[in-house]
Amino acid sequence: MRDDARPQKRCQGPFRRAETVPDTVSGAWWLMTLLLCLLGASVAAAEPTAADTLDGLLRDHVRAGRCDLAGVKADPRLAATLALWAKAPEPLAAEAAGDERAQVAAMAAVRLAHYLNAYTTFVLEELCDHWPVAKVTDIDGFHSRATHVLSGRSRTLDELVEQLLRPLGDPRVDTALCPGPRGGAPWRAEAYQPATLDKQLDDQAARALALPGWLRIDRTGRRLALSQVLRWYAVDSEPLGGPAGFVARYAPAEADRAWCRAGGYQVEWLPFDWTVGEAP
After folding, report:
1. 142 and 226, same domain (yes or no)
2. Which range marks the domain in which residue 79 is found?
3. Which of 167, 271, 168 is nearest to 229 (CA)?
4. Which of 1, 106, 125, 141 is most buried, judged by most C-beta within 10 A?
5. In the beta sheet, which residues pair with residue 278?
6. Which pairs count as long-range contacts for 264-268, CB under 8 Å and 24+ apart, including other chains?
7. pLDDT per residue as tens, the chain (280 positions)
8. Of 181, 205, 229, at which residue does a domain stop?
């Protein structure tokens, strides 16, 4: 028997309307199905992300670049944020976003904000696990041994920085690292958002370089004293001319930027203060 002569089977799938079902019943079934789909989409859209809960946590506990760690430790949103990071899906790689430059840049911003927010949360976790603590150096293995779960995988802070953050190639990230000690980055009172990430990182770099532990200029002695963070990650700022070039680009005062661009000074490194800074 030819294929076209075989009896054709009726579709028995869930969307086939049986001939015996009245139109009014069928219409009600379709309406109920549509409402359930819309309800499910609404619930999914309303579920907070790790970045959402982190944002609320930071807004309530960060003041003037310092964090109220005692308050964070007592806040149930820290545990909720950690649970969300543990199951958060990995963001797509930038090269998977397509060939368009804008799409690649947008996806890179998604990844960078994702990992910066995870890093910030894990620093909070480590500090709160040992709170009260006087210095970060009092916590054994703070960066190198303590692990935190991101997308189902345990990572140390060092692994997060070296494998996920720094390879993205933005030297401004360095001014968001080590936010716990006084010599480190100032805390932000918000989570990083992909749509505003470029502006946030410009602001973060300027705020860090406004601190005396990050930048001091001696015009008379022709000395430029910089944070140890910029020395530790000096290779990141090489495209800008090194740490001094980074300051010449992102220092908050134009007079300081111009002085750095002029050159003719000696670069020195400031001592790093590992004392944990609390909110005023």
Report:
1. no
2. 48-205
3. 271
4. 125
5. 67
6. 264/222, 265/222, 265/223, 265/224, 266/222, 266/223, 266/224, 267/223, 267/224, 267/225, 267/226, 267/243, 268/223, 268/224, 268/225, 268/226
7. 444 443 444 433 333 334 444 555 455 555 555 555 455 444 445 689 999 999 999 999 999 999 999 999 999 999 999 999 999 999 976 555 455 777 888 899 999 999 999 999 999 999 999 999 999 999 999 999 999 999 999 999 999 999 999 999 999 999 999 999 999 999 999 999 999 999 999 999 999 999 999 999 999 999 999 999 999 999 999 999 999 999 999 999 999 999 999 999 999 999 999 999 877 6
8. 205
Residue 91: cis peptide before it, omega within 30 degrees of 0 = no
Residues 119 and 183 in one domain: yes
Do 68 and 154 lie in one domain? The reply is: yes
- Dihedral pair phi/psi, residue 99, rounded to 5°: -90, -15
Instruction: Check residue 76 and report its DSSP letter.
Output: T
**Which domain-ending residue is among 171, 188, 205?**
205
Token look-up 């050159």 returns 263
Alpha carbon distance 209, 116 (integer Å):
19
Q: Which amino acid makes up residue 276?
A: V
Check: pTM over 0.90? Answer yes or no: no
Q: What is the distance between the alpha carbons of residues 217 and 262, in angstroms, rounded to a whole number?
A: 13
Cα gap 229→178, rounded to integer Å? 8
Inside any domain, residue 28 = no
73: helix, coil or strand? helix
Side-chain-side CA neighbours of residue 195 (13 Å): 0
DSSP string, 153-184: EEEEHHHIIIIIIGGG--GGGGGGS--SBTTS
Cα Rg of the chain, angstroms: 26
Could you say which DSSP state residue 67 is in? E
